[in-house]
Each structure stands twice: as C-alpha cells, then as structure tokens.
Amino acid sequence: MQDTFNVKAITLIVKAKERGFRVATAESCTGGLVSAALTDIPGASDVFDRGFVTYSNAAKIDMLGVCAAVIDAYGAVSAETAQAMAKGALEHSLADVAVAITGVAGPGGGTPQKPVGLVHFACAKRGAEVVAIERRFGPLPRREIRQAAVDQALDLMISALGD
Known Pfam families for this protein (predicted)? Predict the structure, then answer.
C-alpha cells in the first residue's frame, strides 16, 4: 500500500506544482497519514502548505472553525462535518485545495447508523463547490481502514486538480 501512496502523492505534488496550487489536509481518523504520505516525497514543500490533525471535536472547532452546531446536529462522522472541515482548512491556510477526512476506524466506536469503516471525505477548492463522498470500507482492521482512507483522500485531491 505504501508504494501506492508514493505514486499518488508524487502525482498530486507534480500536478499541484504544474498548476501553481498549494494543498492542505484536515484529518481526523487518519491522524496525519495523508500529510505524512505527501511529506514523504521530496519537493512536497513546494506545494504542501499545512496539515491539521483534528481528532477531537474541540480541535475541529478550534483549529478549523467547524461550527459546534454542525457536529451536534450531524455528528463528527458526517458529510456535513467533513465539508466544514475542508472549508475550514482552506480558510485557515494558504492552500488552494484542501481535503478532509472523518470516520470510524474501529475496532470500537461504531453504531448501526455509523458502523466501523464508515469514512466521510470532502475536498474544497477555492472558487469551486465542495465535493463530498462517503465510503464504507467495512469492518476491516483499523490500519486497513486508515490506509484505504489515505488512498481515497489522495485520489480526491488529484481529481480536484484536474487533468
């Protein structure tokens, strides 16, 4: 999986550099793994502005400006919270594109409505609508859910940069 991350991170960095874009991350259940995948690549400093690890609700509110009412109404693991996180990452950075990830990595913490393996993603690009997607990776081991989430987040950012 690490080789896949490297290829995707390189692709993202090259595309962002070609377009003159800077990127940021807002990560909850991945705990900085997307940022780590990017910063593993030489030249990342040309495009990677910053990463926010907002594992707690308080961090989402304090660091990204997510409205507490959004978390109260929809939960930390929701499309609405992911979208607010992505928008907040743009507002609190110099980035042109930001990705947000929030989910239930397990093995505990799941509910029938929000089972282990549920992850919400959002990608915000200045001047464009926020793209939000939901993935249900299933009751995989925690590490596999987090790796799958990193893979999906990199794909989402690459897509946002266009061809």
Answer: CinA
